[in-house]
Amino acid sequence: MNGIIVVDKPPDMTSAQVVTHVKRILKVKKVGHTGTLDPFATGVLICCINKATRLARFFTYGKKRYEGVMRLGIRTDTQDLAGRVVSTEPDLGVSDQDVHKVFLSFLEVKHQTPPAYSALKHHGVPLYRLARHGTFVQKPPRRISIYGLEVLDISLPDVRFDVCCSAGTYVRTLCADIGDALGCGAHLTELCRTESGRFGLDEAVSLNTLDRLAASGKISNHIIPMSVALREMPGMSAGDQLLKKIQHGHPVTQEEVAAVRLWRTCPWIKVTDTQGNLVAVISSSKKNGVYPYACVFPLSIVD
Description:
It is built from eight helices and 20 strands. The protein has helices at 15-26, 56-60, 96-105, 127-132, 171-182, 207-216, 226-229, 240-247; strands spanning 3-9, 31-33, 42-49, 64-72, 74-76, 85-88, 111-112, 121-122, 125-126, 142-143, 146-155, 158-165, 186-196, 199-200, 235-237, 252-253, 268-272, 278-283, 290-291, 293-296.
């Protein structure tokens, strides 16, 4: 059982707890996720099973999409509903037009300062742990991309929105910054990740459903094979000669990847056997005339 399963994370559960549940339900040795969701958040959590845990880094950096609700007029120390209220503005003085205008301006945002309550580390210690003990570490702004930002509904003080952004973007910080731009403050009260990379809620299963599928022996229909899971990665099929070469760690040359040379905008190339099983992932950038391996998966059919 090697592949990807997309879980619809329930609220009030950490991403690590979801992984523990998946491991128990599937009775497998290794499971890992590809991007933490806060305990109160729901939605797409990509879980890599057994050998597929080696692919986690290829899913981490894709675009993310969220639907959320921000509440204007209240700031919290964590920028979400789990934090302590630090200020309130009973009189918002904000119109629907103001909200739309400010949201539009945040499409131009290119940098974001990470929150003090985050999993980023300072000298090996997560920032949230330091903050809980009264030490607030301010990390420098990081480059982000906001690909889409849309107001879905306004029912003041609440604003429902949809955002498509780069990995590493903090949606709660985005809400806090929008609230500051409106002059009244804000915090995040609801969050659902609707897409991660090319995986969406339509492919996700709840933990209860996963449990039922495993009990009925139908879980394999919901495990996405490793080669299929790398759906945004250009690929090439290897014949027996190249398969043996890869399995023995011999370098892959320009001639052998000629069929995918036009895909060099992608940093990696997946290599499969003629049955579509993932054999390796290699870099699409040559080094000393050859293409370095990112990872190789042994196949028993190869000598």
